[in-house]
Task: inverse folding
């Protein structure tokens, strides 16, 4: 540059984020107990993702662009997206949820997004195994059939063989 008064040209990128085009897939729950589960998925092409859980079978969550959702791994405590509750926000591919009810069917949904807080652009399309249902373990109820036919045989002064027909209890 031959002109000492010319400082040159400065360029910067002012492009806005775009919504991810590849949604997360293969959502699943493992190590399921009566009240907890490990949740995992295969990431799509978003910089981040939200994971939401719902009871029953509601429609896929309709996350609203430019909205920041606050997660909580205790089901029911995170922000709501319709009938869904957000349990995770971040870049990983697994999380943990607690606070579930025994013997209940839930659905997992993972939504990819791009953009900083307040400027999120969400992919709200379903994908392979996303959403995905899972059911927590049931609480065992009290037995309804009592053991029967109890009898002692081969009785001596110090021993006896005891036998019976089991009822429907666990032990």
Result:
């Amino acid at each position: 540059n031959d002109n000492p008064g010319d400082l040159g040209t400065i360029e910067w990128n002012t492009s806005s984020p775009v919504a991810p085009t590849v949604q997360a897939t293969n959502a699943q729950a493992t190590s399921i107990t009566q009240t907890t589960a490990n949740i995992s998925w295969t990431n799509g092409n978003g910089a981040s993702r939200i994971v939401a859980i719902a009871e029953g079978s509601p429609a896929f969550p309709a996350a609203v662009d430019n909205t920041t959702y606050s997660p909580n791994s205790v089901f029911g405590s995170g922000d709501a997206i319709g009938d869904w509750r957000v349990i995770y926000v971040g870049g990983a591919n697994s999380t943990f949820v607690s606070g579930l009810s025994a013997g209940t069917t839930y659905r997992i949904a993972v939504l990819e997004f791009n953009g900083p807080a307040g400027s999120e652009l969400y992919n709200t399309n379903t994908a392979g195994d996303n959403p995905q249902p899972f059911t927590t373990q049931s609480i065992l109820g009290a037995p309804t059939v009592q053991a029967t036919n109890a009898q002692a045989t081969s009785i001596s002064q110090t021993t006896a063989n005891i036998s019976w027909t089991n009822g429907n209890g666990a032990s």
In short: The CA atoms of residues 10 and 95 lie 43 Å apart. The chain is about 0% helix and 35% strand. The chain has a mean pLDDT of 91. The first strand starts at residue 25 and ends at 30.
